């Protein structure tokens, strides 16, 4: 969801620096989530939504979507000078099947800025590592596939649930909220537990995934509820 602040910045005559962030999720392979960026703030890491992204030499291409033809299969090349990614490749089966999320925003919205806003990012690009195409002393290159570009994957890929929201809610890290994987746009200060009860402890902040939880946070209609309240069971007469 594109926020008004993001839209205004993108249309500005002098927008702040464009920033690209990546999260490599190897949890399904027994690894961890690794956060890195091809942009550097004064030579140091970038922090967005409470997540620290380490500067790494990266080249990425082919993410552009078109209205026709096959789904894009981007390529990403990551430096291998310090052998860090060789270690990951060796430990986790070339990282095949791991998920890569590309997050795009502007420097203005990073955590160290006056206008910091973890919800101000373009739609997430979510891919999986499909094939390792090159590995040498200089870099490792992978071909990526869109998350939906999988054998036997059927459309629609989303189940129509009447009473439950399937959006991903923000996560408390201990020092702030992580919005990097959130698809729910809520970024307010008020916190509620899973029973929709107000709480002053952000660690207890958890959405009930019901329409009532959405109303607690957003109040007036329309609500960004991820369920389909209008769907009803159809019975034969």
**Which class do the helix and strand fractions yield?**
mainly beta
| Number of extended strands | 13
Major sheet size, sense and barrel closure: 9 strands, mixed
- The chain-level mean pLDDT equals 80
How many DSSP H or I helices?
Answer: 3
Helix content: under 10%
Shape field: globular
Strand order of the largest sheet: 3-4-2-1-7-8-9-6-5
Distance between the termini: 41 Å
Strand content: 25-35%
Q: Catalogue the unreliable spans.
A: 151-158, 233-237
Along the chain, the helix and strand elements come as HEEEEEEHEEEEEEEH
Structure description:
The chain is mainly β. Helix content is 10%, strand content 27%. It has three helices and 13 strands, in the order αββββββαβββββββα. The protein has helices at residues 4-10, 84-91, 211-218, and strands spanning 18-25, 33-37, 46-48, 51-55, 58-61, 75-79, 99-106, 125-135, 139-146, 171-172, 177-178, 191-192, 198-199. The strands form three sheets. Strands 3-4-2-1-7-8-9-6-5 form a nine-stranded mixed beta sheet, covered by helices on one side. The longest helix has 8 residues, at 84-91. The protein is globular, with a radius of gyration of 20 Å.
Offer a few descriptive terms.
237 residues; mainly beta; two-stranded antiparallel sheet; 3 helices; 27% strand
């Amino acid at each position: 969801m594109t926020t008004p602040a993001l839209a205004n910045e993108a249309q500005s005559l002098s927008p702040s620096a464009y920033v690209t962030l990546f999260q490599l999720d190897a949890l399904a392979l027994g690894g961890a989530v690794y956060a890195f960026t091809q942009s550097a703030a004064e030579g140091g890491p970038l922090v967005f939504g409470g997540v620290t992204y380490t500067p790494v030499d990266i080249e990425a291409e082919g993410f552009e979507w078109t209205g026709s033809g096959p789904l894009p299969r981007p390529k990403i090349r990551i430096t291998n000078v310090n052998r860090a990614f060789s270690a990951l490749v060796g430990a986790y089966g070339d990282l095949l099947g791991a998920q890569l999320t590309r997050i795009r925003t502007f420097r203005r919205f990073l955590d160290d800025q006056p206008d910091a806003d973890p919800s101000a990012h373009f739609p997430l690009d979510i891919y999986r590592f499909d094939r390792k195409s090159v590995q040498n002393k200089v870099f490792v290159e992978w071909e990526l596939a869109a998350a939906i570009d999988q054998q036997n994957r059927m459309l629609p890929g989303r189940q129509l649930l009447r009473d439950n929201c399937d959006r991903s809610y923000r996560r408390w890290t201990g020092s702030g909220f992580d919005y990097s994987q959130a698809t729910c746009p809520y970024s307010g200060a008020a916190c509620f537990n899973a029973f929709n009860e107000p709480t002053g402890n952000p660690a207890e902040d958890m959405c009930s995934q019901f329409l009532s939880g959405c109303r607690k946070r957003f109040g007036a209609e329309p609500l960004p509820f991820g369920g389909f309240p209008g769907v009803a069971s159809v019975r034969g007469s």
